Amino acid sequence: MSLTTPDPTPTTTRARPGRLAPQPGEVIDRRRPVTFTWNGVTHRGFRGDTIASALAASGERVFSRSYKYHRPRGLLTADFLDPGCSVQVGDEPNVRGGHRLVEDGMVVSSQNTWPSLKFDVKAVNGLAGRFLAPGFYYKTFIKPQRLWPLYEKVLRRFVHAGEITADVSGGVPGETFDKRYAHPDVVVAGGGPAGMAAAVAAALAGSRVMLVEEEHELGGHLRWGDADDREALRDLRAQVAAEPGIEVLTNSVVSGRFDDNWLSIVQRGLPQVFERLIKARAATMIVAPGLIERPYVFEGNDLPGVMLSTAVRRLINLYAVRPGSRAVVLTANPEGDAAVEDLRRAGVEIAAVVDARAGDTVVRATGRSEVTGVELSTGARIACDLLVTAVGWTAPTSLLNMAGDRPVYRPQAARFLPDPQRMPENVLATGGIVGDGTVTELVAHATAIGREAARRAAARARAIGEAVPTRGGDAPALPNPDPTPVDVPVLAPADHPELFQGSTHGFVDFCEDVSSKDLVIAVKEGYDSIELVKRYTTVTMGPTQGKLETVNTVAIVAAATGRTMAETGTTTWRPMYAPVTLGALAGRIHEPVRYSPMQSWHERHGATPLVAGQWIRPEHYGDPAAEVRAVRTGVGIIDVTPIGKLDLRGPDVAQLLNLLYVNKWSKLGIGRVRYGVMCAEDGVVMDDGVTGRLGEDHYLMSTTSSGAATVWEWVEDWLQTAHPDWRVHVTPVTTAYASINVAGPRSRELLAGLTNVDLSADAFGYMQVRTGAVAGVDDCVLWRIGFTGELSYEIHVPASYGLHAWERLMAHGADLGVQPFGVEAQRILRLEKGHFIVGQDTDGLTRAYSGALDWAIKLDKDDFVGKPELVWQQEQGVTTQLVALQPDDRTTVPEEASQILAADGRIAGRITSSRMSPTLGRSICLGQLEPALAAPGTVVTVRLVDGRDIGATVIEGLAHVDPEGARQRV
Amino acid sequence: MMLLPCPWCGPRNATEFRYGGATGARPDPVSATPQQWREYLYTQTNPLGWSREGWYHRAGCRRYITVERHTGTNEVRSALDTATEDG
User: What is the DSSP string of A703-768?
Assistant: First the structure.
């Protein structure tokens, strides 16, 4: 085709831009009109319209202002990628106007415009300074540094983005973000003819297939094609629909490919779910995204009215929108020629067809707020309101690059193509990304690829199944795939002229407002590698992430550096393939919450909940001080179910305990319990608890609540990796038992009526363990220990009877005045008694001698975990030491973590625990303190949070209440 | 996310496992110098290449496994149960 005779003056009677008569392939439903607002003005469209198509049908041409220069921008691609129509919908920013379907009552507004879309003050950026040079912000706003915050404030106003509110739920109540995990055999990324055919072939071969399409329906370019294309589309859609092994996800996108085909798929527009992130582990992925039409670089190429050929074909054929009145078409391929025919059919006057294959081209587009004329290479100037370019295709190889492929540039085809040699075994490609052909040829290639994908998926399933020793005998039979790869026909790319830039400079990156001139300047300034040019100019860094811009960038940098495009290479493609909302990434929160079996009782009795790791525990039931007094004077019960419990069995348990605890275990008799401290190999206190010996080879170990999971793994680690020969079996029983601590001078009295265990002091002494029935429940474990410092029994009841035992204790103890107490009262009680808490009174650097555990550490043992560090700590002395402190002002409770100062003002320690003691009626503390100040009677200064200093005195030992331990031994 | 071939459970997501770091021998606690002990505690070679490391299948069979993994490509050459050296 040659340049048609240009007609420089428009005819007087022209069809105006707007809605056309019904088109055979249109996707709008004319029986269902919708009304929405655009910048406050009511517009009408039809169901099936995108925001952009509905506005274009109303004759709107300007959709946004550009990022840096605030130039008016219209439609360029009229699809998801369109850089010119990111809009705000309700409280949701950055909505892709070329993709999102209009809905009744939608409130749509333009972004990055102030005070209005038509009159944008910031367009002065473009007028005054001509264009901002690359690195403008770096160069301009660098000095003085003290003005950086001010610069940031001003520059923020120029940022290209919408506005968010805290709750971005799409503005619809009940809509949430969701997550899903999937394990398909084959994921097909792209639902055009090749993707559909590949999915069908894979499903027919027995694979479970996910077919993922970014648009709202399957079909790809067939949708805006001719009657034959529509016929092929109907046939392919029928085949997909008939195949139950295919799950079709439209309005969804494979946004990233990670190790071992871990694919992130964002699924949009589900009922009640705003977006869902699917994490799919695919045996095989087929990449079939088709081709993306590439913009042409010339002066004025961003003016509203300059569009790609696919944009006008989509507008005409899918949405029945006449995109202009009088058009100039620059075409280098059959698709551009087809656009000319579509435009003619739509009643658009064709002012000129410029055939790039014949060497003709467009020099520049002119106009202020939209295109009004075009200057051609022939010198002709033609008035028009629409300039259509069809200068070539970009293969969106991003997912392949993420899989390790390095696409190679093919000059004859003017595009990058996948390198089959570098594709991993579990990734295949088909369709336009591989080559060109008729629909029949595309389908034939894709069918072979689909079968091959299914074959590889089956081979993988077989290999895995054969390798797993735990596969049950009744498991379904493994697939038996053909060992011979499927013969895949050649799909060669068609020749295409290399067309990237005309004779003038224009925009390369429409998102970031980067021009070809900026790229040339960057190269001149020394940024001669493509990666440096990218970072310096921000080209390809906008929301389209290079899908429109990268190849033009490579071409321009190649020309400016005198290298070939192959030598220049591309920038690195990283996830995400498409913009993804933070909401989709965050998804639904799946944090488990744990409750004890007594939770319903706590709730009924007004417990204040406390979040303790995954557990929800009663902090108190209204008055923790009263709870403390009840335990000191009568009896109280506390739910301590979260305490970690490990059942240890086997002849080598004592050996294991000797290794894991700093103290000695070999002589622990049956029926005895002992307190133990565990250190890590660096000597730092890791956990503590009591362990009781229930039988000859049977022990029950308790851990801190927060350490339960860690200690279990720790025990398994030592058993499996260091001493696999030791005969010990470990079973976690933390939630198999409900645990209740019965504490106070009258605890024996309370419990005695409910158990068959002899509780007398002689029969069941301090630090002993018994098993028996409690409240009629057999197989309970009772140990007599004293975290609170009172006579107390910790009873472990089979969990399903936990609530029963608790209620019986409360009922039976009513005449004794039994009081439930919470975690807060327990913390006060243990602080009064001087019992430290790992992680509260110690930290990640506290070795055992700093925890006042000298009495427990037995360095004469051959070995235990962390022993060498403790040997050296003992030799060299401690840097801090756990002490009990009494504030001189007995009414002041220093905040935990308050600093302790030496006489010269140095920080010499800190308060680790502090409370007002209801028992003593004065404030009490534990702290870590330099040894030089740790002697009893030493007066130190504590700096309070409000800056005041108070005096405090180090006391003897750690216990403020009952230092002799008489109360717990009765 | 990479898969780890658990010898008991087959290929499973790496998030089911806890990474235990490169495996090194524990020095004799009686004769070790502070220098040797702290190398054992803190010094990791962090190679770009093949690495022998421990993983714990905490959300699976709860076995400790020894994995030979290429840190550059995440390719796994072998994965054995640490206690039994079975694969």
Answer: E-TTTHHHHHHHHHHIIIII-TTS--EEEE-TTTEEEEEEESTTHHHHHHTTBSS--STTTS-TTE
pTM score of the predicted model: 0.88
Residue A466 in contact with partner chain B when CB distance is under 8 A: no
Which tokens sit at A120?
A: 């944008």
With beta carbons under 8 A apart, name residues in chain A contacting B74: 259-260
Tokens of A286: 């087929």
Classify the complex by whether its ipTM is higher than 0.85, answering yes or no.
yes
Whole-number Å distance between alpha carbons of A916 and A890: 9
Reading the block at residue A819, the tokens are 């009081």
E strand segments, B7-83: 10-13, 18-22, 50-56, 64-70, 76-81
Q: Indicate the residue type of A910.
A: R
Cβ pair A863:B37 closer than 8 A = no
Nearest to B54 among A468, A721, A869 (CB): A721
Let me know: does A380 contact A4? Beta carbons within 8 Å.
Answer: no
Domain boundaries defined on chain B:
39-87
Residues in chain B closer than 8 A to A469 (CB atoms): 7-8
B59 touches chain A (CB under 8 A): no
The residue among A567, A738, A569, A552 whose CA lies nearest residue A645 is: A738
**If chain A, 970 residues long, is cut into consecutive pieces of 10 residues, what is the mean pLDDT of each piece?**
52 75 96 96 97 96 87 95 92 91 95 63 49 66 71 62 55 73 97 98 98 97 96 98 98 96 94 91 97 98 97 98 97 97 97 96 95 96 97 95 91 94 94 97 98 98 90 88 96 97 96 94 94 93 91 96 93 88 84 95 97 95 97 98 98 97 95 97 96 97 94 96 96 97 97 96 96 97 93 97 98 96 98 96 95 94 95 95 96 96 94 97 97 96 95 96 90
Quick check: A872 and B40 CB within 8 A? no
Nearest by CB to residue A721, choosing from B1, B34, B64, is: B64
Which of A468, A682, A717 comes nearest B9 by C-beta? A468
